[in-house]
Write a structure and sequence with these properties.
Number of strands: 6
CATH topology: FAD/NAD(P)-binding domain
Strand content: 25-35%
Shape: globular
Distance between the termini: 47 Å
CATH architecture: 3-Layer(bba) Sandwich
Number of domains: 1
Radius of gyration: 17 Å
CATH superfamily: FAD/NAD(P)-binding domain
Structural class: alpha/beta
Largest sheet: 6 strands, mixed
Strand order of the largest sheet: 3-2-1-6-5-4
Helix content: 10-25%
Number of helices: 3
Length: about 130
Amino acid sequence: MGPNSLDVLIIGAGPAGLSAALTLARQLHTAVVFDSNVYRNELSNHMHTVATWDHKDPREFRSATRTEILKRYGTISFVDTPIERVEKGANEVFTATARDGRSWQGSRILLATGVRDLAPDIKGYGNCWGRGM
């Protein structure tokens, strides 16, 4: 690995990616978290099943967690860009390439991209999603 390689490239900056970043920071690993700024719960004003953040705004959670990580740990960085391609080189190093052509290298890839909901074709469903169901 080259001098600019990181331990882990984390793709996704929701609860899973942020938790992974915090865990890696506590172990003094170097990592970058890629945030596409597209979130499954984008339409929701509150999140569930995240300890101490149940029924709170997911935007506030992401902001507070990111701020806390950056304040306490110098081994984690954040890049606001979607990753378009990941390749594993012959030297066992992963390269993640952004839409704008920038790239990063790391020993490991951690995919924390969440899930994609497939909405049923029911009239009015989209208007209720993230607000009432």
